[in-house]
Structures are given as C-alpha cells and as structure tokens.
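Much of our argument rests on the idea that a fold can be written as discrete symbols. Part of our work consisted of pairing the sequence of a single chain with a tokenised description of its backbone. We regard such an encoding as a compact summary of how the chain folds. The amino acid sequence and the backbone structure tokens for this protein are reproduced below.
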Amino acid sequence: MEALNKTLTGKKERPIKVVQFGEGNFLRAFVDYMIDIANEQGKFDGDIVLIKPIEFGNLDMFHAQDCQYTVSLRGIVDGEAKVLNRQITSVCDAVDAINEYEKYMSLAEIDTLRFVVSNTTEAGIVFDNTDKFELNPPKTFPGKLTKFLYHRFETFNGAMDKGLVMLPVELIDDNGIMLKKCVMQLIELWGLSDEFKNWVDEACIFTSTLVDRIVTGYPRDTINEEWEALGYEDKIMVTGEPFALWVIESAKDISKEFDLPGAGLPVIFTDNQKPYKQRKVRILNGAHTSFVLASYLCGNDLVKQSMDDDDVRNFMMKTIYDEVIPTLTLPEKELKDFAEAVVTRFNNPYVKHALLSISLNSVSKWRARCMPSFLGYIEKTGKLPAHLTFSLAALMAFYTGSEIRDKALIGHRDGQEYNIMDDMAVLEFFRDNSGKSTVEFVTAFLGREDFFGQDLNKIEGLTDAMVAYLDDIKANGMRAALCKIS
C-alpha cells in the first residue's frame, strides 16, 4: 500500500506564513487542521513549516510522507456518531532546529513569514538565566525564539512591517504575556540593542490563547484497519474529537489577516479571554471534577459509562445548570450552548476517558475548578450548593484509605483496590484522618487552609452538611446517597 504523499493529496504550494515550534499531535489536529480549512476556503493562503525544537526524536516519518497526513475526527455530530477524515496539506516542511540549525534560522529570512505557533508544554515558557545567545540554537524555547526574532530584525534592517505574531497555545495563564516577558528578559540578559527591543515591543504581537480539543493521537491499536479504510498508509495520522475552540486575545487586531472565523472555524478574537477560560474551567473541567469520584464509587470506570448512568448524568446536569452557570458572567445562551457541547463531548463513543486518570490531584483540582462556583453560588443565593457540596463529600469518600503504597493511597471499591494519586501531603492527611469519626474527619479536612486557601469550616452550615453527606455515603453507599440529591 502506498504511503500518503503530495501526489496523492494534490498539495498546492503556498507562501510560507507560519513557523510552528512543535510537531506533536495536538498542533497538527488543531492549528494545522484549521489553517488547512482556511486555505481551502480562500481565507489564508499560507503554508506551515514545523520546527522540532528538542533533541529527542526525528522527522523521518514526516519527510517520508512529504509532511502530508490525515486528521480523523470522531464523535457526535448533529446527533449522530461520525468519523470525519481530512488530508492535511497545510504543512510544507519539517525542520530540526538543532541538527539543521542553518536551515532553521534561514526561515527567519522569509519575506512572507508572519506567524509563530508554539506548543512546547507548560514548562516550555520559562526564563532561564543560564541560556546563551552564542548557542546554536539556545537551549530554551524563549531563547530560540529571541534569537530567531533577532535574525529577522537584522535581515530586514528593523523594518516595522516584518514583525511576527506569536500564537502560543501552551496551557498556562496569559501564555503570550509570559512568553513576551521571557523574550524581554533575554534581550536584557544578552545585551541586545534597544532598537531590537523596541522592534519586538512595537512590531511584534504576542497573543494569549485558550485552546480546547481532545486529541487522542495515533490510532496504534487499529492502524491496519484505518489504512485499509483510507486506501493508503499514514504513519503520522492523528485522531481527535470534532469539538474545537480557539480564543485569541490580542492587543492589536489580527482578525483580518488571520481570518479563520471567515472559514467557518470556531475561533474567537477578543481583548479579554478570561471569561472564556472561566467558562471552560468551571463548566468542562468543573463538571469532570464534580462527578467523576462519585461516579467511580457508583461502579463506573469511564466518562461515557457515567453519561449512560442516569443517576450520575442527572447529578452532573444539575451541577452545571443549577449551580455553575448562574455564577458565570458570559451571556446565558453562550454558557448553555457551551454546556450542551460539553455533554455531547462526554458522550463521545470513540473516547475512552478513564475516571481514575481524571481523579489525579483531585484536591487541588476541586479548589481550582469547583470552589469558585461553590463560593460564587453562596455569595449569590446565601445558600449552600447541594451538588457541589456533595461532590466534596464524594471526594472525601473516594480518598478514604489507611495505607500508602508506591506513592499512592490505597482505596477500595467493592473489595477491589484502586490507587489514589495526589501530592504526598494530601495522601498523608487522608491516611491519618479518614479513620476518625466523621465529624473529626470533615472538620480537619475543611480546616486545611493549605488545601483551600481558607478555613471552609467558617462557611455557615457547611461542616454539618458535609458530615451528613459523608455519613449517608458510608451507611448506604454512594449511589443511594447521590440519588437523594440528584
């Protein structure tokens, strides 16, 4: 069977407009996929060059297929389970920044270049004062970018129309602001000119972004069947869900030159991404955190199983619609539309999302994802939100255990062990306290200011409500307790 290549896809050659630090699954199934559609719709007309910024791995499979690959989106579309395959032709080359340094740096000389995309993990956007300009390339991503920008600045004699637009998608708050801060610190550290510093500040644009799509990667277990259905081999194909959202916060308007919305793509340009992040964290992530531990103790192992379980699904729906959405600031219709999309995503039959994997670090997750809605509801109504309160009691039930083994607290469900994974201080707290009386256990947990940033016992009625919920779970089981409030 023939491997996918430019001849098979009929790729058109386009001007290079994007360099992309990172060749991983997410960027290829998200950014490169969207640009491919924008090219097809006549809204962008640009190619992407992938940059491998680290030593690990090679680009052989990319070159063997002329950087052509398939994105296969699988999920519920218009109420039906569908598989949507697309050959991506927006990538024209892949370059190793370390072993092809001169070729990599020559990309900065391309007149048509305008955008820099990156996904170098959360640890990628960091300032390292040991990084050096003399290294070819510098060791950190901000170092590589700074030197790349400096070469472009010199090549075009500081022309203000040759600045670049940075589109980082790393999962940190204000990723563009943090990246620019690192670049500016390196300019100072390396003693680069004030003219260059001003050019970066004025001619370049550092956007902050929020991205959302579950990308499940290379379908290794079914690859032969995939190739048979496609009619060609594709060793770099990538699978994911149909849902996508890209929120781009920019101080300067780039919507006309990066008109992805004009191609019908789910991209939002804004001067404030925080309400969208709040919506995602509170509804999508908050829903996960609020139901998964209770669902696991009800006997489910996967998110899809949880959605097929009427008791758990009803609990989740009431949590989202009755207790989370009323605390948010975006228009109600937008919030409800997003919530509906979240429920559809949780029902995706192609994604096997394990509850135990979501349970990792649930104490800090509850604080970040659920506690703002919990406190907001109390502030707005003067009452405890029953479902979010129960979710915290369910967390305590899930974290009940007396033995730490191989850095995991050992819990039990129907006589079978499961591993509870969290910071050691959290695990040690539950090991030492979950055997105490319910009142002592709850009071000690709610009083841990290092867990919650405050003593939650001070919230009127919370301690008593938590004791009642946890006693009910212990006496009657999770499902019976859950059903009383769902």
Remarks:
- The chain has two domains: 6-270, 275-483.
- The longest helix spans residues 274-297.
- The chain has a mean pLDDT of 97.
- The chain has 21 helices and 16 strands.
